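User: Please run a holo structure prediction.
Assistant: Happy to. Please share the sequence and the ligand.
User: Here you go; the ligand is succinic acid.
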Amino acid sequence: MSPLELGNPELLKNCSFINGEWLQGESQFKVINPANSQVVAAVDEVSPTQLEMAIQTASKALLEWQEKTVDERASLLSKWFELIMTNQSDLAYIMTAEQGKPRKEALGEVAYGAKYIEWYAEEARRINGDVLPVNQNGRRALVLRRPVGVVTSITPWNFPGAMILRKAAPALAAGCTFVVKPSEQTPLSALALAYLANEAGIPAGVFSVIVGSNAQPIGEVLTTHPKVAKFSFTGSTAVGKKLLAQCASTVKKTSMELGGNAPLMVFDDADIDVAVNGTMGSKFRNAGQTCVCANRIFVHSKIHDEFVQKLKSRVMELKVGEGNQEGVSVGPLIEEKAVAKVERLIASAINSGARLELGGRRDPAGELFFQPTILTGITPQMDIFNSEIFGPVAAIIPFENEEEVINLANQTEYGLCSYAFTSNMNRVFRLSEKLDFGMVGINEGVLSNPAAPFGGVKESGMGREGGRWGIDDYLENKYVCIGNLD
Ligand code: SIN
């Protein structure tokens, strides 16, 4: 096992954190570094009894947490934020070891996730109700904003820290308690966050992390337990649909941040350097493993060749390798299945007439590394057009006019994020209104912002994370009618 050399070794935990305690298990699973296939840590499996305890204690902790004043909740969240930032370097080191992302991105993710806590510590102070007009004299009508209750969650491996904090921060700010099961591939970042939550003084049972390799039975409990009021998931659409169906049995509130098939459009009036820059950020961040990565890159035929040449020279500068090495900008994919999928999509596109401009193979850096790749001549009939690639492959499609490209962009069951590069302000508004996506980036390839509503439409899910919309998802509007007043 490769020991992680951390400034603060306490951050490395290897079992579930439930009701303020670290609970050992009877068996273990291994966390593997995708860059070198070495074991980073062996982690204890949560037992069914411990899982039940996590939910029961989250339910017990609700009252005490809700009764804290907003100032008390906000100051505990602020303390958690500060501790995360103080430990940013170690947290990023853990993240790179279990997930593979380059150190610069890992540092960025820690800060990005922490920002949600800082933001919602402030937003907790603005959970205002309403006083309504009434339809009879002697009545008063109020709307109270009440926490939904116990929230459970399952989070993915591609953002091992930020996806947890993006949910936990508004949940805790609203007065909910929170139990999260991180991906079995990346549990260590979650456990380190739990350690810091405890250090910050967040009371027992308010934030628990359960770790286990058998996602199915754990997911079943998290989505069906009668004490759970809300379930929040980030992951694939296929898994999200199953979990959503399970939530129906007890009519839980849900937030689902699911898959995407983001179009990125470059119009002939765009600043090509800005468009290339935006494409680099959107496509190659996290080795192409984000739900909002540009998946289909539409380029107007007039500027197609110039764009491809410029993109090629930027892609050739990318350095593939182990995330902690100096200058590395593309880490490994998460597992063999992911690499095989990318290979299959490229081969099938080439067989159907696509042209390989760059890359296209596994990288010599190691088993799970893939060369940043550019394909041109992609058509809507190809698998790569219709699948979420989740790898460092830019798939380029030429187009002729705005109406055609909007139709092509919307030709997907997904609706998470879309991007367009143009200098025409009239077009900016037309695109913002006509693109069937929860998010639209104009002349920008990375939109992440704790103040903004992140989320999708169609089969990309429901609910929003971030901003005032993010906290709404953890609050109920309770109508109180007081009658027979003098
Ligand atoms: C995601 O892939 O779901 C998260 C990406 C981001 O927050 O930018």
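The two ends are 74 Å apart (CA to CA).
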